[in-house]
Design goal:
four-stranded antiparallel β-sheet; 45% helix; 8 helices; alpha+beta
């Protein structure tokens, strides 16, 4: 599973490089999650997931509070969750998750990004069947044995626990996100380097130099789009 963690690190590093963009996207995501239920993470699990992930990106409290206040108040923005699937250079696979208040804007922008960087849009299901929805946590400062014991004692169903770059990575079923989170917090672990509900490819591919450069431009172009929240792919990115 090392390749999966590497791609999450690459994605996080890319997003960290543009804090204003990621903060704005989190503002929308928090607002939408809060509007789906109560604007209280203890009673709204979707909101709790978003807020935990926001912590790993150091989203300022002021931005979080503003989004929650908007959801509690008169905010009536209507966002739709849409997923687009497509192919990058050399048949690489890409999933694009969006939150949009203007479908007529989003679809053409995503399609244009694919076309400009040697890719193409696919139909629904053309790519996602090769990915697995997964809860991913990164934990620093603990050993592999310690985390395994914590998960066993809490009876959490995990797919795998591995150590990479001095970080322990826990992979679990999506419905185990909160179980992993609560088990860690009961053991005194309050901070995560990663806390994601992600789409991880079942198999990863490497691209030759020119194709990888073009692929990275595709990902950057997609992530720059206002409505794009998450981009997942099956390419093993090289340093």
């Amino acid at each position: 599973m090392g390749r999966k963690w590497n791609n999450i690190k690459e994605k996080k590093a890319s997003k960290d490089a543009n804090t204003s963009r990621i903060y704005a996207k989190f503002g929308v995501e928090i607002y939408v999650a809060a509007k789906k239920g109560e604007p209280d993470p203890e009673s709204n699990r979707a909101l709790k997931v978003v807020l935990e992930r926001a912590k790993t990106y150091n989203v300022p409290k002021a931005i979080i509070d503003r989004a929650l206040d908007k959801a509690k108040g008169s905010g009536d923005d209507n966002y739709q969750e849409l997923r687009y699937e497509g192919f990058g250079p050399n048949g690489s696979m890409v999933i694009v998750d969006t939150l949009t208040n203007n479908v007529n804007r989003t679809a053409p922008e995503v399609r244009s990004a694919f076309n400009k960087q040697g890719g193409s849009m696919g139909v629904s299901g053309s790519v996602s069947y090769m990915f697995d929805a997964t809860a991913v946590f990164g934990i620093a400062g603990r050993t592999l044995d310690e985390i395994m014991e914590i998960m066993l004692e809490a009876d959490v169903n995990v797919r795998d626990i591995v150590e990479e770059d001095d970080v322990i990575i826990v992979y679990a079923e999506p419905d185990q996100f909160h179980a992993v989170q609560e088990a860690c917090k009961a053991a005194g672990i309050e901070e995560f380097t990663v806390a994601e509900l992600s789409m991880l490819a079942q198999n990863y591919v490497s691209l030759p130099g020119d194709a990888q450069a073009q692929f990275e431009k595709l990902i950057d172009t997609l992530e720059d789009l206002e409505d794009v929240q998450q981009v997942y792919h099956n390419v093993e990115l090289e340093d």
